[in-house]
Design a protein that fits this description.
Blueprint lengths: L6 H13 L2 H8 L3 H15 L4 E2 L7 E2 L1 H28 L5 E6 L1 H6 L1 H11 L4 E6 L2 H10 L4 E6 L13 E15 L10 H4 L3 E4 L5 H13 L4 E5 L3 H9 L5 E4 L11 E3 L10 E8 L6 H25 L1
Parallel strand pairs: 3-4, 3-5, 7-8
Antiparallel strand pairs: 1-2, 5-11, 6-9, 6-10, 6-11
Helix pairs in contact: 1-2, 1-3, 2-3, 6-11
Length: about 325
C-alpha cells in the first residue's frame, strides 16, 4: 500500500460490511450500485489485497483481510467522531480544563469561596490552580501555559501593563493596612508616631511593596526603618504579631478574627489610603464564559474585602 486509503472509500466499505450487500449499501449512502462497486474495487487496488468475495446470488463474504480492515476502520471512524465532538466543543469553548495562576494570599483567602460559588453556578471545565507570583506568572500567560492569571500591582507604572499580547482587567483595590502587635493593657491602638520608633517589616529593597512604602512615607515626611525583609506576607504578620516590627499588610489577610495579636494603626486625617490593585491577566480574546464568571466573582470578593476593611477602620 503506497498511501492511506481514501476515507470516502473506507466509509463505503463499512456500509457494505454493515448491509452485506452492494445494493443496500448504495441505498444507505445515496449512490448507484455501480458507484459502490467501483469504490470497493478502488479500495482493493489501493490496499493490494482482496477484501470482499463476490459470488452471484449470495451475500458478500469478507476475506480475512476484509475482516481486519473492517475492525480497524471502525476504530478509526469512532476516533474521528470523538475528535469532531471534541473540536466542536473546543470551538464552542466547552473546555475540559483551564489553568488559572494565582498569587499565594489570593489562593488562601479569595479563591476557595469564589470557586465553590462558581461550581454551584456553572458546572464546566476543571480549573487547575497554579500558585505563582505575578512576575513569574505573566510570561506564562504570554506562552499559553496559564489561561488566566490573578495578579497584583502596587504601583501604576509597574508591570503587568496592557499590550497586544495581554489583556488586563482591574478587579478592584485591596487596601493596605498599617498593623502593629497588640499590646495588652494599652488604652487604644498605637499611633503612627509610635510606629516611627519601631522596626518595620517589608519586602526586599527593589520590591514593589517596599518602593510603595518609601513613596508613601516620603509624602508623610517620615522615614521608616526597615530592619526585617521578607517576600512572605505570613512571615510579615508573624513578625508583627511577635512585636518585632510594624508593617503594611494587604487587607485580605486581616479578616475578622483571622489575626489575633495584630492591631490596626489609624492613619492621620487626610492621609491618602494605600492599596494594591488586584488584576486579571489573560491573552486577548481567550477568555471562555467560565473565566469571565470567575473574574466577576473575584471582582465582588475584592470589593467585599475593601468594604469590610472600611467598616473595621471606622
Amino acid at each position: 500500500m503506497k498511501s492511506q486509503p481514501d476515507l470516502k472509500l473506507l466509509a463505503t466499505f463499512l456500509a457494505v460490511v454493515r448491509r452485506g450487500s452492494m445494493a443496500e449499501a448504495a441505498a444507505e449512502l445515496g449512490y448507484v450500485p455501480s458507484a459502490v462497486s467501483q469504490h470497493i474495487a478502488a479500495l482493493e487496488r489501493a490496499m493490494g489485497v482482496e477484501l470482499i468475495v463476490r459470488r452471484p446470488g449470495s451475500r458478500l463474504i469478507l476475506t480475512a483481510a476484509g475482516r481486519s480492515l473492517a475492525q480497524v476502520t471502525e476504530t478509526l471512524f469512532d476516533a474521528t467522531a470523538r475528535f469532531q465532538d471534541a473540536a466542536q466543543a473546543i470551538a464552542a469553548q466547552e473546555l475540559a480544563e483551564l489553568r488559572v495562576g494565582v498569587y499565594p494570599s489570593a489562593m488562601t483567602y479569595l479563591l476557595p469561596q469564589v470557586l465553590a460559588t462558581l461550581r454551584e453556578r456553572r458546572p464546566g471545565p476543571r480549573i487547575r490552580l497554579v500558585v505563582v507570583e505575578t512576575d513569574e506568572g505573566v510570561p506564562r500567560v504570554r506562552s499559553g501555559d496559564i489561561d488566566l492569571l490573578v495578579a497584583y500591582r502596587y504601583l501604576p507604572e509597574d508591570p503587568p501593563v496592557p499590550s497586544e499580547a495581554l489583556t488586563i482587567s482591574v478587579l478592584g483595590r485591596e487596601p493596605l493596612v498599617l498593623v502593629a502587635g497588640a499590646e495588652p493593657g494599652r488604652g487604644g491602638p498605637p499611633e503612627l508616631a509610635d510606629c516611627l520608633e519601631r522596626d518595620w517589616v517589608s519586602g526586599h529593597a527593589n520590591n514593589p511593596d517596599r518602593r510603595l512604602l518609601h513613596r508613601w512615607a516620603g509624602e508623610l515626611g517620615i522615614a521608616p526603618r526597615v530592619a526585617l525583609e521578607t517576600d512572605d506576607l505570613h512571615s510579615m504578620l508573624a513578625m508583627v504579631r511577635a512585636g518585632l516590627a510594624v508593617g503594611l499588610i494587604p487587607a485580605t489577610l486581616l479578616g475578622p478574627h483571622r489575626n489575633p495579636g495584630v492591631t490596626r494603626v489609624p492613619l492621620p486625617p487626610g492621609t491618602t489610603p494605600l492599596h494594591r490593585e488586584v488584576l486579571a491577566v489573560s491573552r486577548p480574546d481567550t477568555r471562555p464564559p467560565v473565566l469571565n464568571d470567575l473574574v466577576a466573582l473575584l471582582t465582588r470578593a475584592v470589593a467585599d474585602v475593601a468594604s469590610l476593611e472600611e467598616a473595621e477602620g471606622s
